[in-house]
Amino acid sequence: FLMQTSEMLRKICMRNLVRKYCRGLTAERKAQLQQKVVTSAVFSGKKEGYLESLSQPFLETRLKENDLNPKVLQLIRGENIKYVTPVIKYDRNGFKARERLLVLTQSSAYVVEMAKIKQKIEYSTLKGISTSNLSDGIVVIHVPEDNKQKGDVILQCEHIFEMVTKLCILANKQSVVKVVKGSLRFRVGSGKEGTMVFTVGPEPQVFKDKTGQLTVV
């Protein structure tokens, strides 16, 4: 009986300590923990660099709304901007690298070049998000085959765990994320597909190989 009472008191004590800890959390800390739970579900045991990312708090955004060009702000007016980060976008055909911004609002993702919106992806139409199991920062955002979209979006982001987590939460599509090994297919447009190959090498690089594939080292 004494052992049962002791175990019951121990559980009550633990429950009170947990309740006290939860009540003492700031809104910012609570948001961090909620995001990290999603990151764990998506990447834990699947992608290199995940363990190192655990100790790095996610920022609310990498760039402020005021950092965006006024013309872009005017084009997406009425939408609540949630997250902005610099990215490298690779062309779907020649794979030329271009500096862009990824803007995530409450309802859509925008790929932005200075004062232009290059592509808009409504979360409701987002088909998938793919990344490799290696330590690269490549992300492919898969879009539907329709006249509104030029093809899937190939991005490289320094803060890949943070960016993908934000996108998952805002789009409410955690289940569509795939961490792949070796290679992945992406849609170029007009029914055409391309292949991206992931490999390990002495230094990081992204290039178009002799076969016309995008190779990520």
From TrEMBL:
InterPro entries: Myosin_TH1
Domain (TH1) ranges: 47-217
Name the record gives this protein: MYO1H protein
GO molecular function, one term: cytoskeletal motor activity
GO cellular component: myosin complex
